[in-house]
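Model the whole thing, not chain by chain.
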Amino acid sequence: MHVDLDYFFAQCEERENPSLMNKPVVVCVYSGRGGDSGAVSTANYVARKYGVKSGIPIALAKRILKDRDAIFLPVRHEFYETVSQKIMQVLRSHADKFEQVGIDEAFLDVSKQVSGDFEIARELAKEIKKEILTKEKLTCSIGLGPNKLVAKMASKFQKPSGLTIVKPEEVEHFLSEMPVGELYGVGRKTEKVMQKLGIKTIGELARYDVEKLVEVFGKTMGTYFHNASLGIDESPVQEVGRAESISRIVTLKQNTRDLNIILEEVYPLCDYVHSRVLEQGLNFRSISVIAVMKDLSIHTRSKSLGSPTSEPEVIRKMMKELFERLLEEEQELEVRRAGVKVSSFVEAKRGQTYLTDFASKA
DNA sequence: GTATGCTTTCGGC
DNA sequence: TTACGGCCGAAAGCATAC
């Protein structure tokens, strides 16, 4: 079973302020450059009707919704996180095995408790929808299928507030006529390539020679696309462990190639990343910098450390070196956004102290 | 020849 | 007419170790 909370951020805002209902609601990530600079995080279905959706520029959304009484709100991440945690607790209580995906989705393995019976599963899904509506006043869309992939495709099939059941014998019919771009894992880029191969629907992908797919997309992805097109997926529902990376990125006040200006804006992100690492009792072995250029192309540079650390000074020093290198190697464009990421975590020893502690004591 | 590690890019939400 | 976030994980591609 896949549960997807409908237009989550915007629905949370509607719940807090019911007067928003029936108006276009657009939740925005303002970049901090002033005005309407930034992107749409999510929009309710009234706004979507006009083509306003995740990822488009706020300024474009405003133009589309001009004179339509639209509401534009800044994202309130902590608020959504609190709502999410309560809902995930409810969902988890109904699952034999549970897997949260992002802030607003989850897979529930319920095959044991329904003994593989899709009609019993249907009733369970109805109960879950009712419970989330009663307890948290939010709607969700649920997909039921023989595996995660089909359940995910099913939850997307009818929304908002949908319930779609795809039994094993219905999988082929359910998938075959869909545009290939609808298949999970097929983004815009992959869709373009498949179009060139003459593949427009998932059914056509299913009939396409696997070996040729492997030639074009590599072994992993080629095999994945073949299986996925047939609704085959054996990946288990499993609890997500700790994050494998922690990152933070900002939009610079102005585009620049000046290392010092970039560092001035990125150093504060180090403190954030460092505190997140610390509160989780981790050390990291790898550090990366990210630069989004004026043309929105993305470049990264990273370095592995000899030994795990969580020293903020190390983050700062490495960041400087990595941005220096990146600017040398990417001569063309100004940097628009810049960020930092740490990964390859290792449990820190209990009670571990830091060089800075000794320095301050000395 | 295979396993493993490192760096960079890509795609999803 | 243009406009443009902030995360995450997975895989590719290459180098090196054994």
